[in-house]
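From: lab user (bench 3)
To: helpdesk
Subject: output format question, protein + zinc ion

Hello, I'm new to running complex predictions and I'm not sure whether the block I got back is the full result or only part of it. Here's what I submitted:
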Amino acid sequence: MGDRLNDLLARLHTADDLDRAAAVLGWDQMTYMPPEGNAGRGDQLATLATLWHREFTSPAIGELLDALETEYKDRPADDPKRALLHVTRRQYEKKTKLPESLVAEMQRASAEAYKAWVAARAEKRFSLFAPAFGRILQLNRDAAEAFGYAEEPYDALIDDAEPGLTASRAQQLLDALKQALLPLVQQIAEHRERVDRSMLIGEYPHEAQWQAGIDAATAFGFDFARGRQDVSIHPFTTSFGVDDVRITTHINPGFFPSGFYSTLHEAGHGMYEQGLPAEWARTPLGQAISGGVHESQSRLWENVVGRSHEFWEYFLPTAKRYFPTQLGHADVETMYRAVNYSEPSLVRVDADEVTYNLHIAVRFEIERALMQGNLTPQDVPDAWAQKMQTYLGIRPHDDLVGALQDIHWTGGFGSFIGYSIGNIVSGQLWQAASRDLGDLPDMIRRGEFAPLLGWLRTNLHQLGRTYSTDQMLRRATGGPLDAAPYIDYVQRKYRAIYGL
Ligand code: ZN
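Helpdesk reply: Thanks, we reran it on our side. This is the complete output you should expect:
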């Protein structure tokens, strides 16, 4: 009987190895590959994706799952072997429900949409992207029908990205965030001059920025013996296995926070990957719960820790060594306030903690309306401008800083909500860790990050996908997904900073 499990594991290992090999090629494509390598690399990645799909959806895996589910049915649901069967079954069903013709069609449409997106960006006109985007919308509707859903087609796509989440629950969470954050954005706008971040703008040499980021990431607990950092245009994290996790950063020599906080953000992602259970490596159980939970780790280290007063009490002396002229006269309070400067921006990736979730609400609500048939692709720029005006009080002057800014819509729908889930979960985990660990702020002040990382390892990282997002949160924090702790955190912090 152990043979069947070993057989399943061997098949899952083979599939995962193909996936990680693709990750190596993908990482290289974004870091060191010469520009002309693109076409060949695209072919190689497509081949590996096809091979992965063939391995993972083979009827043999379906048969093994059938037999093993019967064999293990009396074990508790959080028994790792039963959990392995559960998450593998879920992924297997998802992947086998999509007809191969639809998968191929989505790949083609996505490649076309990417070309159209690049061309539309050059002209700053969404209308040039709209036809290809309409095709993506139609295929997403087809995929939703193939997956199945309870209330609305968009649910199927949300559930694919954030297992267990529905569109209506996501909307409730966003509404709670909007209700709390909209007044805060307004109040801050009336007192913008109370925070000055000019000292962060100026000449910040690349090498010193790089080292400062490495120092902070090392202090947090990112293990450079099992990972490394390189440079890419858009920072990202990828994993070739628990012992080889790659992060990237993008350094702006004229603005200190870009590169430094990118490094802290990706280090947060990277520490999650390094903490996943080695005994379930190369299986779906040894992976992160969802994109949103992954984002909770990056946001927690970047913002909740890295933008805290306590962090700068600890780190400012180090930063001054790297930037003696730029920060030599800075005190902790000024630094703390400067890195928390808040202002509505047109571009999501530039957004701060107060405004970020409002950018997500814009995208989520537009996707939902498109999927419901209440909005057409041609009308997206108008809907975008209206929502930006309502939520952030600003309007894009062209589509490049409007509906054409994110690459996500060349692939599909459903992933944006993960960013807000990440913020929400970071608030919940921080609150629970503070309760469990006692003087967490004091630890950070002293540069002791191991207790927090240890808490995250025990309550999240080492569990892989044994639990769903809600189950993990119930165990770690006492309740399911809940926006209240994050709202409380943001309100307290920014009211104090801006004297509201
Ligand atoms: Zn991230």
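A quick orientation on your result: Residues 167-498 form a domain with the Neurolysin; domain 3 fold (CATH 1.10.1370.30). Let us know if anything else is unclear.
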